[in-house]
Design goal:
The chain is an alpha/beta fold. The protein has one domain. It has 13 helices and 11 strands. Helix 9 runs antiparallel to helix 11 and helix 11 runs antiparallel to helix 12. It binds zinc ion. The site of zinc ion (ZN) has 7 residues, from strand 1.
Length: about 325
Amino acid sequence: MKTFNQILPLLVIPLTLIACSGDSGGGSDPVPQQEEDTGGTSGGTTTGGTTTGGTSGGTTGGTTGGSQPNFDVTLDSELTSAERISVNNSIDHLESMQIDGSKIAYFSEIFGGNSTSNVVTYLERRANYIISEFTDIFGTRVIYPPSITKNFQGTLAINPSVLIWYDDEYFAPEGVRFLTNGSARNVDSSRLGVIQIGEAFTSSDAIIQAITLVHEARHSDCPDGALLSDVIAWGFAGQFPQNKKCGQLHGECPDGNSCDVFAWGPYAIGYIYSLSIVNTCTSCTITERQQAQAAANMWQGAAYDINGSMNGVYGPPDMGNSNQVRDDL
Ligand SMILES: [Zn+2]
């Protein structure tokens, strides 16, 4: 039986921050409504055109700048209206924030460059599908029987891609397939890139959501490959993997919350991104930078020895990925 209570590729938010007044600048941004109307079903099924104002363009004049990067991610058709609006709004922010990573240590090593377009490229390699909180991924989307129970209390989002890939390896050579918007797709690696919205996502501010997506995307990475023992333990018994590097899985902090257990895990990546917003975002409101500061404060301690990491103790981050399974049995 696969239980999700212990599954840690998720990002939890304290209730205090959820309640954060959602005003900011983004509040007045009515874009997603339009996308919802036009995209509704047919358009939405492909790579759910995120922001770039569709046709009539009556809404956002602001985002139509030609050079603005476009985060191409598939929005699942089961997303609720609120989720779709929220996701589109956070993606708007992600695409339009003017940040300068050259002023932030290790930013360019993580994102492959210093600007928002590099963050978007980082995301596109790791986040391909955004799924509703209410979609039972393992019950209805991974095409094979078992159902699971889950507990998403206070969860911003979860990225189960590595576990879906473990199922794929467990059932090799046929493997499993992942179903979204009516298409069953092959699962070739943890870079499948499935991010499932948690119940705390829609009520959070766009900046928190953007940082959440950057954090979750890191969970798509398996830099050193997987262990056969983990694949079997997960596939056979739903046991959580021992090798935490694959999927950049968290462990437990002394206080019982989830933590990175090695350098440059998802909390560290989210922290660096938060810092770039706090210190360099010229397009953000003061409120948005404060929200990023709150996120940096909140998650800094969950990163593994962030001071050591920033000071080079662990070297640069390994942002690569492998789909090799090593036979350790
Ligand atoms: Zn996480």
